[in-house]
Design goal:
The chain has 16 helices and 19 strands. With about 450 residues, it is α/β, with parallel strands linked by helices. The chain has 2 domains: about 20-365, Alpha-Beta Horseshoe (pyruvate-formate lyase- activating enzyme), CATH 3.80.30; about 365-440, Arc Repressor Mutant, subunit A (Orthogonal Bundle). Strand 9 and strand 10 (about 290) form a beta hairpin. The longest helix has 18 residues, at about 80-100. The chain starts with a helix and ends in a 12-residue tail after the last helix. The structure holds S-adenosylmethionine and iron/sulfur cluster (SF4). Iron/sulfur cluster (SF4) binds next to loops.
Length: about 450
């Protein structure tokens, strides 16, 4: 089948599988705070070294980019910084009281929103507070998302002194027409300057986020973005597919019309061109939407089959326990998922009272755990295997019919209990993962709305 026909055929709504089950299918009725707390202790028993990945969601931004799907609060009022940090530290104290062993931090990621909305002093207070009563693994990775417009040398230096060595900058696209449409104006010089500063200060992994599928994006315009990016030679690149999810984000995304978006075929052409040019420049494609130079830890993790994917995306540190702190943050003890409240005021109020600010969660069944690992392997390694006993006879029959269809299109090869995705099949890894998703196959609900696969 021709590539354009494949794209038309498979460009359906599909989860990004940063978790399995995906959030819209969590069985919140079976979840309890007690189950969550017990699972944390269990995770520490299963990983006797007490490794914890920490994610902190810092939700504030000074202005609204109209393409953004992140959970954020727009404000110019910097008086919000200190109460928010106090709340995060209170929430972390609740966890530390629950742990039976001293947590050993293997990963710390500050995301958002915009972490660099906060002053360097307040970020220092946050990180120093988080590290109280913990040990830090010698190979720990500390990283943050830096907005190129608000990341100062002082931010870079302060966080470097605290152990941060990786920063990702939100670039998106250099085309002025696209920037105008997404209300995010930033010159290549500005990105080059902040990238050079990060390197001078001592960051060993500088990453740029690019997005394919933004309004008014063209192959010609993005060719220039690729060239400008390669001139700066970031160690890592994210090439996200634009998630158009206006139903989730209210008016924030409605600054442009759906007619202004490139088609699925154009999007795929742009992605293919970027992939080819990045590979020609020495980058290796990692998972679904990442590229890394071979000196970057993400490449090492791929080579050692240590690559992991969680709510933060691809990571090099597969800890049993991921604690997400802050409003809307998601946590994962491998057996249980939870998400915090999405309301900033409620979050601050509850955390300061010493109450875990949980909104909902899901306790994974034994079958969930097996399918979770199966899909994780697909997303990280493009191959997987399974134990047929987890599927009923009718599920198995459907599974093999679907596998046959993908194989006939040249997207994968399979036998009774394993499959390997072909290079042509890689853009369709979300579609292939869907055939194992019991929730999606059994009870599609209107609440389960995902962005398109391409
Ligand atoms: C939290 S933001 C980055 C930090 C900072 N706020 C900034 O904008 O530079 C994380 C990244 O998510 C990506 N992103 C946000 N909304 C997206 C969407 N709708 N589709 C795909 N990627 C998106 C962007 O590449 C963005 O840089
Ligand atoms: S892209 Fe970054 S700065 Fe823009 S609204 Fe989203 S989180 Fe905020």
């Amino acid at each position: 089948m021709a590539p354009t026909q494949l794209i038309e055929k498979y460009n359906v709504a599909a989860p990004r599988y940063t978790s399995y089950p995906t959030v819209p299918f969590w069985n919140t009725a079976s979840f309890s705070e007690k189950a969550w707390r017990e699972s944390i202790v269990q995770a520490q028993i299963e990983d006797p070294t007490g490794g914890v990945s920490l994610y902190v969601h810092l939700p504030y931004c000074e202005s609204m980019c109209t393409f953004c799907a992140c959970h954020k609060r727009i404000t110019h009022n910097h008086a919000v910084e200190e109460p928010y940090i106090e709340a995060v530290l209170s929430e972390w104290r609740i966890y530390k009281q629950q742990f039976k062993k001293t947590p050993r931090i293997v990963e710390l990621h500050l995301g958002g929103g915009t972490p660099t909305f906060f002053s360097p002093q307040n970020l220092q207070k946050l990180v120093e507070g988080l590290l109280v009563g913990t040990t830090t693994d010698p190979n720990a990775e500390f990283s943050f998302e830096g907005h190129p417009g608000s990341t100062t040398k002082a931010h870079l230096q302060t966080l470097h002194a605290l152990g941060f060595r990786r920063v990702s900058f939100g670039v998106q696209d250099y085309d002025p027409i696209v920037q105008l449409a997404i209300k995010r104006i930033q010159m290549p010089d500005q990105i080059a300057k902040v990238t050079a500063q990060a390197r001078e200060v001592g960051y060993t992994s500088v990453s740029h986020d690019l997005v394919v599928g933004l309004p008014f994006q063209t192959l010609k315009g993005f060719t220039k973005t690729i060239q400008q990016t390669l001139q700066m030679r970031p160690d890592r690149l994210s090439l996200y597919s634009y998630a158009h999810v206006p139903w989730l984000k209210g008016n924030g995304q409605r600054g442009f019309d759906e007619n202004n978006l490139p088609t699925a075929v154009q999007k795929q052409e742009i992605y293919a061109l970027a992939r080819q040019q990045f590979e020609a420049a020495g980058y290796v494609e990692i998972g679904m939407d990442h590229f890394a130079l071979t000196n970057d830890r993400l490449f090492e993790a791929l080579e050692n089959k240590q690559l992991h994917r969680n709510f933060m995306g691809y990571t090099t540190t597969p800890a049993r326990l991921l604690v997400g702190l802050g409003v809307s943050a998601i946590s994962d003890s491998w057996r249980v998922f939870t998400q915090n409240t999405k309301d900033v005021e409620e979050y601050i109020y509850l955390a300061k009272q010493g109450i875990l600010p949980l909104l909902k969660g899901h306790v994974l069944s034994d079958t969930d755990l097996k399918i979770r690992q199966l899909i994780l392997n697909l997303m990280c390694l493009f191959e997987t295997n399974w134990d047929n006993s987890i599927f009923s006879e009718s599920q198995r029959a459907t599974l093999y019919v679907q596998l046959e269809r993908f194989a006939a299109d040249g997207l994968l090869a399979f036998d009774d209990t394993s499959l390997r995705i072909s290079s042509q099949g890689r853009p369709f890894v979300r579609n292939i993962s869907m055939i194992f998703d019991e929730y999606l196959n059994e009870k599609p609900t209107p609440a389960a709305r995902f962005s398109n696969a391409i």
